[in-house]
Design a protein that fits this description.
The complex is a heterodimer. Chain A has eleven helices and 14 strands. Chain A has helices at 14-23, 37-42, 77-81, 84-89, 91-96, 103-106, 111-117, 123-131, 148-151, 238-251, 262-287, and strands at residues 7-10, 28-31, 50-53, 62-65, 68-72, 134-139, 142-147, 152-154, 157-158, 165-172, 178-185, 195-203, 209-217, 224-226. Chain B is α+β, with helices and mostly antiparallel strands. In chain B, strands 3-2-6-4-5 form a five-stranded mixed beta sheet, sandwiched between helices. Chain B is elongated, with a radius of gyration of 16 Å. The chains are: A alpha+beta, B alpha+beta. Chain A binds chain B through residues 1-12, 16, 31, 34-35, 38-39, 42-43, 49, 51, 53, 55, 76, 78, 98, 101-105, 107-108, 188-190, and chain B through 1-7, 10, 26-28, 30, 33, 48-51, 54, 57, 63-66, 68-71, 73-74, 117, 121, 135-136, 138-140.
Chain lengths: 288, 163
């Protein structure tokens, strides 16, 4: 359980980090909180030739920036979890963070690191997809912004190029008449979710659905967006919730493993969908 | 910028439980192994070595950290606190005393990590309840006590503080 040898670089600014990534685009791995990467290195599932440790480049701010809430590369999950600003501006993130690993890992783990790692069971990619977050990818070639829907490509695979750093994640701000909810099922609290679900529901003034996003985690190689178009323009009543929750279980093609069969995951997807839809509906109306 | 090739060693300097330590380390040396073998901090226990069991938990610059998920070279210039910073054999900390009174350990393997976590938890939570203690404890595995006495000990330490 010891990592294979690697060369170590510790840049002291974002520019230095991007220089290193450009120079070693063939085999450099970014080390932020290390809560997934170092575990994988210890088990030799990952054997990067070079590690670029970004822990001293600064980039640890999180605040509203225009119409988004921006979280920089090195912001730790525990700092977000405790922040009243996050609770007010991005309530779905606030709700989901306590499910991400344990307090002892969140204290070092970064939000951007979890997004860039793109574990199919992880909570934060589901949250980012449900909210329609945008990823600011920086490199020596410039900065480009990628929508969450395009950012998560497959298991542990994102749209990030080898020379790019996920510099900031941009979350849309809490909106009026909008409800948010997150739920997951894991064997023990803090374990990887067997399945998770997030819902973002925006209502029109007359109470009908303006926009609904239902996203599932742990049931596909990337966050799975359930087609909820049929719900638009009508109130989200019990029957509509039931229909969509059933659809969620039907539309996915989950895998089986030791923790649950594909049929079990379908069942969980439906149950969790029902819960988050009901909770988001309540939350949206509370917002009035 | 700091760089170190895989076959080189780099000088690191840090304090471990207040003691200044200076050594040369290879990049791949885990903080866990550095603490145990280079600093004699054997209160830091090597369990699963992939961040699950919590036995190796320490504080680095005030943050609770799995020392198996950090490289020693990363802690350069920092301050590490292990279980040894809590109390001594002759003067246990109130939390350690509560663990003893509640029989919150049997084999003791998981205990140092739990003590470091629980102390950090008590330092940040003004009025902890059983639920929050259990949530904190979910980041640690104990195969002997069944957790109930550990929860009771942490709550005792919190209550004692309020008196």
């Amino acid at each position: 359980m010891k990592p294979a040898p690697f060369a170590y670089h510790r840049p002291e600014s974002r520019d230095e980090a991007l220089d290193l990534l450009a120079e070693h685009a063939d085999g450099a791995k970014v080390l932020a909180g290390g809560q997934s990467l170092v575990a994988a290195m210890n088990m030799r599932l990952a054997r990067p030739a070079r590690v670029v440790d970004i822990n001293r480049i600064g980039e640890d701010t999180f605040a509203q920036d225009g119409d988004a809430f921006a979280v920089s590369a090195l912001v730790r999950q525990s700092d977000l979890e405790r922040s009243p600003a996050v609770r007010d501006a991005v309530p779905l993130l606030h709700e989901a963070l306590p499910f991400v690993g344990h307090a002892q890992t969140r204290s070092r783990a970064t939000l951007c690191g979890s997004l860039a790692h793109a574990d199919p069971s992880a909570e934060l990619p589901v949250v980012a997809t449900a909210l329609g977050a945008r990823m600011e990818c920086g490199s020596r070639r410039g900065t480009r912004t990628v929508a969450a829907d395009e950012f998560f490509v497959s298991s542990f695979t994102t749209a990030l190029e080898p020379d790019e750093l996920l510099a900031r994640a941009l979350f849309p701000l809490r909106a009026a008449r909008t409800g948010y909810a997150f739920a997951e099922f894991a064997e023990r609290h803090g374990d990887y979710a067997i399945a998770s679900a997030a819902a973002v529901l925006r209502l029109r003034e007359d109470g009908a659905v303006d926009e609904l996003r239902l996203v599932l985690g742990g049931v596909s190689d990337r966050p799975f967006v359930v087609d909820a178009h049929a719900c638009a323009g009508r109130p989200l009543g019990e029957e509509a919730i039931e229909t969509l929750a059933e659809r969620a279980g039907r539309d996915i093609d989950p895998h089986s493993d030791l923790r649950g069969s594909a049929a079990y995951r379908r069942q969980l997807a439906s149950v969790l969908s029902r819960r988050v839809l009901a909770a988001a509906s309540l939350d949206a109306r509370k917002e009035g | 910028m700091t760089s170190c090739e895989s076959d080189e060693r780099h000088a690191v300097e840090m304090t471990v439980d207040g003691r200044r330590i200076r050594r040369y380390v290879s990049p791949r040396l885990l903080l866990l192994d550095f603490l145990r073998t280079e600093c004699g901090a054997t209160g830091v226990h090597a369990g699963c070595e992939h961040g699950v069991c919590g036995a190796c938990t320490v504080k680095v610059d005030g943050r609770v950290t799995r020392s198996c998920l950090m490289f020693a070279i990363q802690a350069d210039g920092g301050a590490v606190e292990t279980v040894a910073s809590l109390g001594t054999r002759d003067a246990l900390s109130p939390l350690q005393e509560a663990f003893r009174a509640r029989h919150a350990l049997q084999c003791g393997f998981c205990t140092p990590g739990i003590l470091v976590s629980a102390q950090a938890f008590l330092d940040s939570e003004e009025h902890p309840d059983e639920r929050s203690v259990r949530e904190m404890l979910s980041g640690h595995l104990c195969r002997c006590t069944g957790y109930a006495p550990i929860v009771a000990a942490v709550l005792d330490a919190a209550a004692q503080r309020e008196r």
